[in-house]
Amino acid sequence: MKLEMGYFHVEDIVFGEKTFFENGLLTINKKEALDIVFEDDNITTADLIIAKKGDPIRITPVKEAVEPRCKVSGGVMFPGVINKLTPAGQGRTHVLKGSCVLAVGKHWGGFQDGLIDMSGPGAKQTIFSQLLNICLVADTNEESERHEQQKKNKALRWAAMRLAEYLGNCVKDLEPEELEVFEHLPLDQRSEEINNLPRVMYILQLQSQMLETGYNALVYGWDANRMLPTLMNPNELLDGAIISGSFMPSSSKISTYQHVNNATIKRLMKEHGKTINFLGVIVSNLNVQLEEKQRSAFFVRQLAVSLGTQGAIVAEEGYGNPDSDFILVINELEDAGIKVVGITNECTGRDGKSQPLVDLSDKADAIVSTGNVSQFIQLGPMDIVIGELESLARDGNSGGWEESVWKDGSVQMENNGMFCADSSTGDHYKTVVEY
Length: 435
What we know:
By secondary structure, the chain is of the alpha/beta class. The protein has nine helices and 24 strands. The chain has helices spanning 30-37, 154-168, 192-195, 234-238, 256-260, 263-271, 290-306, 322-335, 391-394; strands at residues 2-9, 12-15, 20-22, 25-28, 43-51, 57-66, 69-73, 91-97, 99-105, 114-117, 132-140, 178-183, 199-206, 218-219, 222-223, 230-232, 242-243, 277-285, 311-316, 339-346, 367-372, 376-379, 384-387, 411-414.
């Protein structure tokens, strides 16, 4: 399977009379872009606001992040979700690199929504402070979940994908500034030299604990709660086959932007044929009942062993209850003679002294930590707030509480509420080091 990614590097974004890209400048016709947003009658109000690196801007409640891109050949964007179901991971995709569409609530937030600072100390918590963000600030008529702590946020999340595709289409017929090729051949078509290298598998555990549909991560539009561990070509993930859910505490969530830019997958692809034989990706889920957890772990082991895996990276989306899925998979793989490195965040309390994971094992002796969800953070006021700052304290944000927002606009919160601050894909600023 061969995927070409054509990159157009965005250096600035402005609004103008038409949507086009030229010499690093992305110009957006706001009316046309909002027309795409209002294709969903559930969206009642919407605006677009540009937030740039270094701006004195605080954004909350952030619900989703999507990279502007379009398919030039070989499929559609976000198959099975906003477009028809076709295979992803082949042909050519054009990308407006350095830009991002953020879905932001105009008023109502929830447990799974987060905060982004574009400057100051808070900017060091998340990669999204380094991007040129097109903030879709909108409200909806989804009254049934307005006051719920857990929100599906479907109208806004789907609008963000449509908007990202609309923006990406402005470079559909242009020649990219940079072309990156990802080619992942079937095992029987690889050279003897590659097949003699250490055989490595990447296992991605998607958040899927909600029994009701609409909250969990989607694989080709299919609720991950309804799936068994599945072998996928890494190109599929880099080309939009997986969509972020709307359930996890914000810092632990893997946004759609991060799925298509998964830094761990990209590094494994880079090392393929040089230091490792990258076998592919096992996409698994995170469950609630013990029997479901054990079943998934058995299937992961079966797939890995059948493919002759010698080493594996296991990445967990979230923490708490999912830690048991994480440890079960590591135990099964280690018992099968497969060496494992895990990637996860921790919940060690504000003092850092609590047990880092709900479940532990002597076999989980190589863990990359992406940070402590309980880290206490204090941030001064910002000149501009996009969205509604009160949502941090009022709406059950996983990192906020009643006294989180002060009268002068300062906030105190836990890292839990920073948008995708310590997700497990490898694109973040921080870790925890044991001395």
